[in-house]
Write a structure and sequence with these properties.
It contains 13 helices and 23 strands. It has about 425 residues and is of the alpha+beta class. The strands form six sheets. The protein has a six-stranded antiparallel beta sheet with strand order 12-15-18-23-20-19. A five-stranded parallel beta sheet has the order 3-2-1-4-5, sandwiched between helices. The chain binds adenosine monophosphate (AMP) and glycine.
Amino acid sequence: MPGLTVLIVGGGGREHAICLGLDASPSVGTIHSAPGNAGTLMVGVNHTISASDIEGLVSLAVELGADLVVVGPEVPLVNGLADSLRAAGIACFGPHAEGAILEGSKLHAKRVMQELGIPTGGCVVVEKAGAIEAALDSFKPPWVVKRDVLAAGKGVTVTTDRQQAHDALAAGLTSDGFVLLEEHLSGEEASVLVVMDESGYVCLPPSQDHKRVGEGDTGPNTGGMGAYAPAPVVTPAVFQRVVDEIVEPMHHHLRNQDVPYRGCLYVGLMIDSQGAPGVIEFNVRFGDPETQVTIPLISSDLAELLLACAEGRVSDTEVEFHSHSAATVVLASEGYPASSVTGRVISGSEVKIEEGEIRGFVHYAGTNFDSEGNLISSGGRVLSATGTAPEISSAISAAYEVIGCIGLEGSHYRSDIAFRAL
Ligand code: AMP
Ligand code: GLY
């Protein structure tokens, strides 16, 4: 029987990790990516169709006779890619537009959580400039101001400076007509990626992202500068609370919608000092760079899991994990996150470590080949160096050994990824 034809939508490190996971699956024949990157091109075929071109992606999937489409980013999901694919009879890993509102609207997500009694911070909606001061009075600092738009992590301001909070609220009001002021949750952040459909769900090993650009979690927010899994802050007792208090009620809610949710539910958590979890955000897709440290820990067939989810039969699927740890360190372009210098040649990325059970390798992100075949940078997050090993310390060392071999003028990376695990 010919293998499955799979189309992956997106072109970041997350999509390369999905691509490598699917490539290891005996049931997969060909892997196509749109638009993909240098890494996905090493494994399959890239198509120059943007991840937000819904019509173009559906036509491509039909033309390829795709058995499965795996959607990486949120924007096409919010814009109805899964709905259009399913209407064309193509299985899609990623929820329909209505399910994707959980990420598309933070206010919607908040209302769902409040209705279901899921632990999360309190929240007020500010709709008039005259209401700003009273709203600020109703929460203790630090203040958390969230615009209700898809802003790739840039729509959130967390500050102890009342004037800055006021300005963020006023700016959000001007651009969007309303803005959210949310209770600040303190503790340690963690992410749990849940592969979910109406039949059941599978939680992948909890991970921790490093969102700030600078060492010691300082400086501006980014898409994520590195991650590791499993994150020890999510102890078995904390994990059980996450399942009981968050994942179970969300699954019950989503499986009872008219169109069931089929894809990843990304649960962004704050774990307080007592081990109580609170939800910071839901995303409707795999995280980036969390995917780079969770997919390598799945020891069973990834294609089988994603296809089962797209077809609503997760509960019939056996999923197994390596008892290893993984760490990934992002290499970013000069100027990132404010800007990014791109088009520079990258050297040394073919490096691989294989020493017993220790592995080190590159997940490609904003990369391409120029007309002369040189590997060049094409985005803010260029690649990430990933290590996997029985011990987290060896996984971290492997990731740093790999990144130390890579040359890219002006690039930077954090030297303290996974410090909380040590
Ligand atoms: P989000 O885009 O909702 O993930 O927010 C970006 C970052 O802001 C999160 O990763 C947290 O570090 C921080 N953040 C968001 N909401 C809260 C909150 N309620 N309490 C504390 N920190 C928050
Ligand atoms: N790493 C955070 C995210 O994917 O949203």
